[in-house]
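This week, work through this protein record:
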Amino acid sequence: FRHTKSGVDRLRQIEYLKSLIREAFSYLDREGKGYIVREEVSYIMKYFGQYPSEAQVVDVILPEIQEDEPTNYVYYEKFEKYMLNAIINNEFEPDDAETLLAAFKVLDSEGKGYIEVDAMKELLLKNGIPFYEKEWQDFEAYSVDLETNVINYEDYVSRLVMDNEKH
């Protein structure tokens, strides 16, 4: 996005991003009422490569999006504006490789170099902002070594960094 050559190209990219944001939002707004439950904001943000912490979602993002409407819902118009800005400015980019490895090493107190799938599933489905089952399935398909059925976190982080650099 940052390497746009002309104003026309930039406008096309913005319109394209808006259409992607609308599509992702409507996936969770199944009834087409123009709002989603506030807990779903982080899921859409992750989909667009934006990874705010739970504290950032609760303390910064939701109050800004909801402003004068502190309800359990987030309306599309305000969400689109916020999300577009976050994507364009890469406001909540993923952590770097060193930070990710350090986090995995905390989970791997025995220094085995991997995390058991069941342990990771428990963490991701029941702590913090929990994954949806589909998110877990995608994570599992992406991260689990099929031969050993564990998450070799150095391999996972390396792959993640390479994939993020492509975008």
Summary: The CA atoms of residues 104 and 153 lie 7 Å apart.
